[in-house]
Design a protein that fits this description.
Oligomer: single chain
Strand content: 5-15%
Number of helices: 4
Helix content: 55-70%
Strand order of the largest sheet: 2-1-3
Shape: globular
Distance between the termini: 32 Å
Order of helices and strands: EEHHEHH
Length: about 90
């Protein structure tokens, strides 16, 4: 079972649905069509999930880089909304 290592060192179970939901929320914020959203979740979300679900540990920063890199190549507006959302959370 994969464990996610958070910034503070805390560990958490890897939950693939969190990645998919985050992409869906960012796509909604970017006003992407439902069909394009499903395509992004499938292409970006599932590829990242497949990449990390076989590992024992993964850092949140590595997950973030993988997701944002793929989103930037596929849908820059969605990546931009994701980044803005992160900035709001930090405040």
């Amino acid at each position: 079972m994969t464990q996610v290592i958070k910034r503070g060192g805390r560990r958490q179970k890897f939950i693939p649905a969190k990645i998919k939901n985050s992409i869906k929320k960012a796509a909604a914020g970017a006003r992407i069509s439902p069909a394009k959203t499903r395509e992004l979740v499938k292409d970006v979300g599932e590829s990242v999930i497949d990449l990390y679900k076989r590992k024992k540990f993964v850092k949140t920063i590595d997950l973030r880089k993988s997701i944002l890199g793929r989103l930037t190549r596929r849908a820059k507006s969605v990546a931009s909304v994701w980044k803005k959302s992160e900035k709001k959370k930090k405040k």
